[in-house]
Amino acid sequence: MTIPRLLPTLLRDFDRAFSSLEEPLSQALFARPLRGAQAANVYRPAVDVSETKNAYLIEAELPGARREDIDLEFTDSNTIVVKGNIGPKETAQSYTDASSATSEASAVTTSNTDAHTPTTISAEIPTYWTQERTLGSFRRSFTFPTAVDSERVRAVFRDGVLSVHVPKPEQKVNKISITAE
Fold this sequence. Notes:
Layout: H1 3-30, E1 47-51, E2 55-61, E3 70-76, E4 79-86, H2 92-101, E5 107-112, E6 117-122, E7 136-143, E8 154-158, E9 161-167
Antiparallel strand pairs: 1-2, 2-9, 3-4, 4-7, 5-6, 8-9
Keywords: Stress response
Protein name: SHSP domain-containing protein
Region (Disordered): 90-118
């Protein structure tokens, strides 16, 4: 067979091979949430890890997270774990509380210019038509090539991004004195 005749067959075989890798690659490269049985409230946030001469920097996108729901811990001298939970903005209890607190004014009407019909914002528990925000527990572990200075780690959570500055240990020069015999 000649190459032009083999080309469609090769392309079809490549397409089949790569389509089976699409989901795992999507999860690894784009930090998509897990699907199916693994998706039981498990979330894998997008994380960047970079290195400078003196430190490592971990930046994790955690939209919707609260600072008090995020934990950082070292499991050994060179491994840090970032874990937490991103819950819904409002729970059924907060809808119930809002409903009882505003019994007289239980709905607010606004103008929806696109549909030319009013939109009612209610204190009732909503029925979702679509829910695209990612919610759930997460746990990410990062192992550095050498031990790090865990006593000087700094973490800042701002605008849904957790930034963790992990200093490398200071290089101490251990001067050895030489004695004459």
